[in-house]
Amino acid sequence: MKTDCRLAFALVTALAVAGCAVNPVTKQPELSTMSTQREAEIGAEASKVVAEQIGLVEDPELARYVEAVGQRLAQRSPRQDTAYHFAVANMEVPNAFALPGGWIYLSRGLLVLTNSEAELANVLGHEIAHVAARHAASREAHSIGAGLLSMMGSVVSTATLGVGAGIGRLFQIAGAGAIASYSRGQERQADEIGQELAAFSGWDPKALSRFLETLEIDTELEDEPSQLPDFLSSHPLTGDRIARSAQHAATLTIAPGAPIAASREAFLKKLDGLLVGPDPAHGLFRGGRFLHPGLAMTIDFPSGWTTHNSEQVVAAISPDEDALIALQIQEEGNDAKTAALRFAEAHRVALSDERALTIAGRPAYRAVAMAQTQDGRLGFELCWIAHRDMIFRFTGMAPADRFGRHQAALARTSQSFGNLSATELASIHDLRLRVVRAQGGESLAALSRRTGNAMSLEKTAIANSLATDAVLAAGDPVKIAIKVRYAR
Questions:
Q1: CA dihedral 267, 273, 275, 281 (to 10 degrees)
Q2: 336 and 378: one domain?
Q3: pTM for the full model?
Q4: 273 domain residue, yes or no
Q5: Which end of the chain, N or C, is more open, meaning fewer C-beta atoms within 10 Å of its C-beta?
């Protein structure tokens, strides 16, 4: 009851301070607790998390191209009091999202599925519309209380003693509602505004419905749901939405304007070399075994646990979600014991059952700790390992009353830290997008065999907006994926 009163008071106070604002798209007054300055601050902070936790595609030419398309659209945005930024996120899942303050991202997985500059422009226009209509700000007025509770509940256990800080920060932003899923009404509004921006800037607004159809087919093909946070999957693909976008496009007139890429083939060439699928440079899972070619190391996580991999942390959660183990780099150095003592002092935790040991020929230090948190008393299985002039820390954790049940598995994981073998390294490959030309009368299957295409026939058809039994004309540009041996 006291918590409800505090949240209610906070909400009333925030609304009183913020008052009414005029939505730059609808021109109607609306309640908002987020000022333009606050939007910019949240967006700038969140953009750092995206860069750290997801990563950006390091292709300057592609980045400049996406930025050029985005900025042409942004010039037509009904909201000009914010700076717009565009980037390609290093995500294999097809997606696009916008942060408050004008930070807009496309995933490389989404670019793999695009087939024209007009499709790209409509997607970017949709995200610009979310920013222009201040959808994140309007959501905050309705969800400030629930968002705060969600944020605290999501990160309290992982943030304790610095455990899983990378996961915690990402979940914190999702829980706060800053980039959470939009309502159907907001999505519809963003579709319409995005199409209008595209048409006013010289691109065909019908490309949005075509691209939504491609995404719908691709979603049906993928058997396994994404394990990414919901805010990265906030675009419901429905027949109604596709039909609405096609109807709205029919009402719009395309303004004169030359495309930035002169032809479809020129557009596809912008994507040539793009990574398809997982990025081996960040490590990869094969079942419960984690391999990191850049660090030349492996780890065996418990069978059946849900795994997570980002640039900052590798982690696994037990099937009952009552235990977690995370690996992250704590600091530079080679003295595992000193690193352990420094960690204990910094976090004011008492270590017990301490001992020095050697793991895969590397100096290591292991300890146990107990700590009282808002979620109750937690047990920790900790292990520090010196590797390549860095100290890696395994942090295994579970509620105190279940810690004994998981402790052996947590310890086995940390002690499985090993060397990546030459055979394992040789087995790691990149998949890179390539644009090839079809021969006259060639089928998609025949082209795949001739070019060594590593994508499935179904995925290749979707990526090129073709039927699997399509007959190709001579010279038709087709996107395929080529397997390339990973090079550190």
A1: -150
A2: yes
A3: 0.75
A4: no
A5: N
